[in-house]
């Protein structure tokens, strides 16, 4: 069974668990319990240089230059990546944890200090075995262990590192599910620290007749860039391949509910043109690799590639589904590629019910990073800072 099948299963909707950490939770006062912490060389201190390819094929390299004064924090929880044996992963950062932090979290350090706890997440191994056995029940006990770790890491971060700073919560897939539970259980005394939450690649359901009712009801969706205390969440599908019937993403499970969709590019005022930043060679064995970005040229030597104007995004509510529709504006007259990778494949078969889950964050990565700075500025102004 391929990793593709289990990647998104973890966050199809884990059952709610207690906010209390289980016995034996890691000690997050110890440095080794963290995948990323600021001011050290780790998985989030990697080269984030981007090859920017314009429509005429000209290319320039843009390095990541962190702000001199990063005045806020980002708390990142990574998606389902662990290849460890057993239902829950260990607390050792393997290549898969380091790779995903490099791809998803490290770029945010341009504006914020990044904290990313290791946690005993539900493993790909366990989910693969569950699917092979035909089990519909999710591993609730394993989810409780995973969430207990994330909750313990959050409490430790607040106690030893926060110091009154604002913080953006960032997650993808299983990580977003963990943060969704954290926010639902969050006491009012902590909510004022939260600048925003970027819960990408998971369904956040709200009542269609009253958007103030539903999951994380206390947190409104973001409607402009200069807003704080709000939520950004979406799941991505190609505009010409919307969520089919039975899709685990983009279709609400609760009667009378809809899935929240907030488009980062629209918030940043770019219309439908998203600032996409992709991994240069693609997203791994679950999808097709990228072979070239410009016809006849080898792949760029940087780890990341941006293609201004190639990607458009738009929140769509149609046929009972709510999702971020991605359009690739390929132009056969210019030298750039006319399509991207990111779909989930089995052999040569594209699995449309998974959408573009593998590139939920890359399709709008530049917008997400820039948005955090705008949101922090609004939060700081409200605090009188």
From TrEMBL:
Pfam families: DUF3089
Keyword Signal: yes
InterPro entries per the UniProt record, alphabetical: AB_hydrolase_fold, DUF3089
Top-rank lineage group of the source organism: Bacteria
Signal sequence, start to end: 1-21
Keyword Transcription: no
Sorted UniProt keywords: Signal
Protein name (database record): DUF3089 domain-containing protein
Organism: Pelagerythrobacter marensis
Biological classification of the source: Bacteria, Pseudomonadati, Pseudomonadota, Alphaproteobacteria, Sphingomonadales
């Amino acid at each position: 069974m391929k990793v593709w099948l289990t990647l998104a299963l973890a966050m199809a909707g884990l059952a709610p668990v207690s906010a209390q950490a289980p016995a034996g939770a890691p000690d997050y006062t110890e440095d080794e319990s963290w995948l990323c912490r600021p001011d050290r060389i780790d998985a989030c201190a990697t080269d984030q240089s981007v090859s920017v390819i314009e429509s005429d094929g000209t290319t320039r390299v843009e390095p990541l230059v962190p702000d001199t004064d990063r005045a806020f924090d980002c708390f990142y929880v990574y998606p389902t990546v662990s290849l460890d044996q057993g239902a829950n992963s260990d607390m050792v950062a393997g290549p898969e944890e380091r790779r995903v932090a490099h791809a998803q979290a490290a770029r945010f350090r341009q504006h914020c200090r990044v904290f990313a706890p290791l946690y005993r997440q539900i493993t790909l191994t366990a989910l693969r075995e569950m699917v092979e056995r035909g089990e519909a029940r999710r591993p609730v006990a394993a989810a409780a262990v995973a969430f207990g770790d994330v909750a313990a890491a959050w409490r430790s971060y607040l106690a030893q590192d926060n110091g009154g700073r604002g913080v953006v919560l960032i997650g993808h897939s299983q990580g977003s599910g963990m943060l969704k539970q954290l926010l639902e259980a969050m006491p009012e005394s902590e909510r004022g620290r939260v600048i925003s939450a970027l819960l990408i690649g998971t369904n956040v359901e709200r009542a269609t007749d009253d958007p103030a009712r539903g999951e994380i009801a206390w947190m409104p969706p973001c409607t402009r860039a200069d807003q704080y205390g709000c939520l950004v969440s979406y799941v991505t599908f190609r505009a010409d391949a919307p969520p089919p019937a039975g899709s685990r993403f983009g279709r609400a499970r609760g009667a009378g509910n809809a899935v929240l969709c907030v488009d980062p590019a629209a918030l940043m005022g770019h219309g439908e043109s998203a600032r996409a930043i992709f991994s240069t060679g693609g997203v791994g064995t679950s999808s097709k690799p990228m072979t070239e970005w410009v016809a006849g040229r080898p792949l760029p030597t940087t780890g990341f590639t941006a293609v201004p104007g190639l990607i458009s995004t738009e929140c769509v509510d149609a046929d009972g589904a709510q999702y971020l529709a991605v359009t690739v504006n390929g132009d056969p007259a210019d030298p750039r590629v006319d399509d991207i990778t990111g779909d989930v494949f089995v052999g040569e078969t594209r699995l449309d019910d998974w959408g573009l889950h593998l590139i939920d964050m890359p399709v709008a990565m530049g917008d997400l990073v820039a948005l955090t700075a705008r949101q922090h500025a609004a939060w700081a102004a409200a605090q009188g800072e």
